[in-house]
Amino acid sequence: MHLGLVGYGNIGRSLLDLLDAGELSRLTVLARPGKAPDLPGEVVDTVADLIAAAPDLLVECAGHAAVRETVLPALKAGIDVVLVSIGALSDPELERDLHAAAEQGGARLILPAGAIGGIDLLAAMAPAGGLEVSYTGTKPPQAWQGTPAEDLIDLGALTTAATFFSGSAREVARTFPKNANVAATLALAGAGMDATRVELVADPAATGNRHAYRVQSPLGDYEIRIDNRASNGNAKTSAATIYSVLREIRNRKGPVVI
Ligand SMILES: NC(=O)c1ccc[n+]([C@@H]2O[C@H](COP(=O)([O-])OP(=O)(O)OC[C@H]3O[C@@H](n4cnc5c(N)ncnc54)[C@H](O)[C@@H]3O)[C@@H](O)[C@H]2O)c1
Q1: Distance from Cα 107 to the centre of ligand 1, integer Å
Q2: Substitution site in 59, 61, 178, 238 for ligand 1 pocket (most atoms within 8 Å of beta carbon)
């Protein structure tokens, strides 16, 4: 497989570390100048060069701000894209434009489960309607530093768990854009950005990132709780996110898809 990457940060680097030698026939990476001196492949610095290289599959792991300028033209050019910065889809205009670009190019926009699980069941139940989905994201107080949580509670003074945000997945994306990926993934798979309920919690007793959600549907109810370990390169990114992207790549080339 000829793999393309947009962004060579924590997820991009960690992903390439996980791929076995021989899994890729070619690698093309769109990176900021000087960001990929050690890359074991070809580095390009424009979207046009990336598209001209015509990778079989492109993985976007550059950040929400990069999605419009990179993913949109790649889809239009017929390149399938795994979009890791899923929170970007909470912008309805961008979501509409990405859908249109994929249709125009005959390409597919692939949304990986990322840091969350159970997306298969949620997406399977969605067409039956009547879904109620509520998600709670819990992290230690220090993990919320540098986010608008700082304006809502005194993170340093907490002795017990505090819920500092309650709203829809769309509101989370607006207020906490860097923490919107999981809520957006659940929303897009299930009840939508406006109907998916979200609570964000700072808990001094938390040791990592906890994602918990409850689904009620005419087809059945379930609850899921995931305590993710951090990736080596970035405490804010769950290791499971990187493995979920690896799964998407391997599902494209192996004889069996699961
Ligand atoms: N879906 C999920 O569950 C999930 C989980 C964690 C992170 N994410 C998202 O994944 C994305 C990447 O995360 P990360 O930890 O690897 O980030 P990172 O900051 O470590 O790496 C991003 C890299 O992309 C580069 N970049 C930015 N804009 C670019 C552009 N236009 N062209 C080329 N390179 C560009 C940056 O220079 C940086 O090196 C973020 O949007 C993050 O929110 C999603």
Answers
A1: 22
A2: 61
Q: Which CATH code, of 3.20.20.70, 3.40.50.300, 3.40.50.970, 3.40.50.720, is assigned to 2-114+240-253?
A: 3.40.50.720
Asked if the model's pLDDT at residue 223 lies above 80, the reply is yes
pTM (two decimals)? 0.95
Q: Which CATH architecture has domain 119-229?
A: 2-Layer Sandwich (3.30)
CA 85 / ligand 1 centre spacing (Å):
7
Residues in the chain: 258
pLDDT at position 38: 81
Q: Could you confirm whether 211 is annotated as catalytic?
A: yes
Residue closest to 46 by CA, chosen among 61, 64, 63, 28:
28
Maximum distance among all alpha carbons in the chain? Answer: 55
Domain definitions of the chain by residue range: 2-114+240-253, 119-229
